[in-house]
# Entry
Amino acid sequence: MFHLQIQVLAMLFRTHLGDEHDNCSLTRWIIELNQDKNKLRNEQRNLVKDFRSCLDFWDIVVDGYLIATLASYSGVNSLAEFRKDLVENSDASIRLFDKIKALASDLAIFGRVDTIRKTSPIAERDQTYENHFLFLQHALTLRNFTLAMRQGDSGRVRVSLSYFTVWFQASKQFNYAMECLHLTACLSKLWSDNLVKFWMQNCLINPSGKKESWMACDYLGEYIVREVKNMMPFNINEATGNTLRNKYSPQIMVFRDTRKIMQEETDAPTFGFHSSKVKTYVDV
# Structure
């Protein structure tokens, strides 16, 4: 599921990348926000390079589009006027809630842009609006998927998956197109009700038990594998291998919780600006 999130982001990045002269293109916002595009994605392979950095940048653009769109729905001419209205008028929040509902209703019509393109002459079409509207639909579907995983809502995960299945069919990511189609078919038609229920109850996991700390099972698996590899001695043999597998590996999550508690109690920084990877055993 985590890998699916990465590939969906990569697909949407390619779709909306455009160039610096387009009004609604990621390339333009990369320049405007002084981002390094080489750190965000791999140009040669058309892939996301740093998932977290890429998602952070994506979310900033999405938030900006949402605010600008709500300002437009509110009938104001600038963001300054929109902000002033919210601060000075007591009923502004109520009116804003109505505008949010109107925007949500419009965005829920996924065939809207396609209808415009098929029925309107090219000279009468507003391509900036079309691209803007499609971007919001794609971005909010991805955000719904991300939040659903974090909140442990497998039902919303499944709904988002149905949209991703359709989108992947028009991409060159053939493996994900095939696997998403297969999973959607299994959940909708092929599996028994009990098997579907089992998948819904086990596709996400919450190892900490905290609110909104759910994650995809493959994400947790990758974390554990990475931690085990970091603990693997360079001169591993049968004895050290057995110790790693049978004693250290089952305690990975205990080590994680212990590390977090130590950081909190000692006010130790949890990040740094080192140019090279820090060797934790030397620091300890």
Observations:
- The radius of gyration is 23 Å.
- Confidence is low (pLDDT under 50) at residues 272-284.
- The longest helix spans residues 127-151.
